[in-house]
């Protein structure tokens, strides 16, 4: 991501190298269930982006 011509770091609820696991992934309903985040005010956010990092073991 770039902001005003400079590389910027995306906001994240986790420290570097830490990720939360999905609880459920349903391709038929096109839904992903994740643990409820403890981020204050998230339920009132008007724009939210979720990035899914897939790593197949």
UniProtKB/TrEMBL annotation:
Keywords: Lyase. One of its GO terms (molecular function) is lyase activity. It holds the Pfam family GH141_M. The keyword Lyase applies. Residues 1-57 form the GH141-like insertion domain. This is Pectin lyase fold/virulence factor.
